[in-house]
Amino acid sequence: MGKVVAVANQKGGVGKTTTAINLSSAIALEGKSVLLIDMDPQGNSTSGLGVDQGSLKSTTYSCLVKTSTIQESSIETSVAGLSLLPANADLAGAEVELVNIEGREGHLRTIIDEIREKYDFIFLDCPPALGILTINALTAADSVLIPVQCEYYAMEGLTRLIGSIDLVRQSFNSSLELEGIVLTMYDSRNTLSRQVAEQIRSHLVDKVYQAVIPRNVSLAEAPSYGRPGILYNVASAGSQAYVTLAKEFIAHGEKSPR
Ligand code: ATP
Ligand code: MG
Fold it and tell me: Is the overall model pTM greater than 0.90, yes or no?
């Protein structure tokens, strides 16, 4: 049974998509069977894996409104072992259409359950908001992985997010766990970056991964070539950090299904 991991942070631009793409790719390259579900109407995971958003017929949206299934809508990527359920702007419609439907937070969970046993891991790349799409992701997930950019106010944002995760746990998904926190776009020469990293580690001790993702130009360039950083330039410091994170994730992350 695949473990479902939501990559979430309501703050925009902190490295959710970069982490979702590169961590799921690195885990697939470790020999695991992985599905990445793009839960963001921006479709950045979709484009970043080289899939043209405009040409899509079946997407996360069509699966959520049940005009297609995940099985028939997910596509293979250039990474062996990594499949993608793509998204485009259509997904913004789900925010509106699911609003008045009973049990609206549980749709994703229901459709994931149909394909769960096909994969070792299913990652959900969430949008930068705590709307119905992220709530669906947190309701479907076994755990949540939080990328945090080491900048001013990071700790405040993280505290708020952990509060929201507690609310989802109380209302919709009592077994939701905090998988871990990954520090992204880290710049060791920057004093603030170091101080924020220390502050987060002192508050959340064993929940913060040892692997830290540095600010790295190859990771930023890779999406424009439609490839994960770890294929575009595997030798780069950023790629190597994601490979290290993948090993740490697998060592900690495999657990019995709920
Ligand atoms: P959104 O909230 O809009 O979905 P996000 O949290 O998914 O954003 P990303 O899209 O992964 O964040 O990253 C934001 C920007 O920062 C992108 O341009 C990305 O290429 C760049 N970026 C992410 N991680 C790194 C890194 N480690 N080094 C350099 N650039 C990075
Ligand atoms: Mg994103």
Answer: yes
